[in-house]
Amino acid sequence: MTSSFASLLPGTERALFHRVALAQSEGRTPSLVGAVARDGAVVWSGGRSGDGTPDPDADTQYRIGSITKPFTAVLVMRLRDEGLLDLSDPLEKHLPGTGVGEVTIAQLLCHSAGLAAESPAPWWERTSATLRPELADVLGPQPSLHPAGRRFHYSNTGYTLLGSLVAAVRGTSWEEALRTEILEPLGLRRTDVRPSAPHARGWAVHPWADALLPEPSEDLGVMAPAGQLWSTVGDLCRFALFLAEGDAMVLSAETVREMRAPAAPVQEGEWDGVFGLGLRIERVGGRTLVGHGGSLPGFLAGLRFSVADGVAAAVLANATSGPQPGVVAADLLGIVAEADPRIPAPWKPLPSVDPELLELTGPWYWGTYAYGLALLADGGLELRPLRGAGRASRFRAEPGGGWTGLDDYFTGETLTVVRGADGRVSHLDLGSFVFTREPYEQGDAVPGGVDQDGWRGR
């Protein structure tokens, strides 16, 4: 096994080595490689080979299959941010003649458009793209299986349409848009539609014997936006850090946050995972992990990252079946987050304090529910229940006055500081909910008024 690492404890390094070695051995895969990134850089990578080839490292290319889809989703979100389309637009507005009806761009991104999962036979992953030269060949005579927007149904054909959408709106190929708008700005020099050395060969492993069979490596043609790419664990970790933090050259932090938010309907029995816009969100071991998986004949891939922990992990293998790279990536991430957590930044006092904001802090009451309002380091406000369950949210100041909710129930709602004729703060209005300094105080602006006899015993 070979590895590289920095700034991790020796025990953490060994635990990561062990997990990769176990995955390669128990998964019966010719080779497997993993990497972990945090604080903006890859901090560990390790690989193991059992087929006589050199151990893979963070620079060894593998085919990543459907992890191509988040790249395509980023290209679509860039078009939205530039005002060239809206996610609520029907696809037909920008790409007419597909025959998929009124499905929207957002529904395609989160796999709720109701389209078929695969193209018509023969199996597209092991046959030449010349058999499917046009979108009509990919979609077939019955492209839709379910009512649009009603349920999650994973669709490779949907991302084929999104790739064609990018090409139509940009006036260039999906491949060229990918190269100039994502790969070059983010420095992903080892990610491409075609492999370059060093790269792994795709194998099938016999289910009942330790024997290998070469797998074909087909160009996917018009279906490339659904699964064409080759990449490395190093590049994938860097891509995950971008999806966690944003990059002004590609997408803002606000837009990648939007991509990570659940967007598809959740089916019964699927409460632990849901799709956002090109990304899967799941709960694993108490953590919210975001990422995607991928597979093509001869290759398996997994990418996971945790925004809260600031850790990303990628795992690649060259076998048609066997290891579970997504599970292994989640394990690598968990090892670092639990055994070698980031040292928190030191607490620092604010450089300056606005007296009017400081006046707003402290206890507030919605009816008899007690809340505390705190001033945050970024200049925002945070409202949280002081005891028991309750709705909490952070708020961002707006240039024209007022505050906008950023979390959960109050997302997008307006918090207004209401002052009396004397200029003093009377109450807070949060989407019509009135918060007062005392619970049901006489003379306060309580909707419906307060009983004139006030509080009493029984």
From TrEMBL:
Gene3D superfamilies hit by this protein: DD-peptidase/beta-lactamase superfamily
Domain Beta-lactamase-related residue range list: 26-334
DUF7586 domain residues: 353-437
SUPFAM superfamilies: beta-lactamase/transpeptidase-like (SSF56601)
InterPro entries for this protein: AmpC-like, Beta-lactam-related, Beta-lactam/transpept-like, DUF7586
Species: Streptomyces lichenis
Transmembrane segments annotated in the record for this chain: none
Position of the signal peptide: none
Protein name (database record): Beta-lactamase family protein
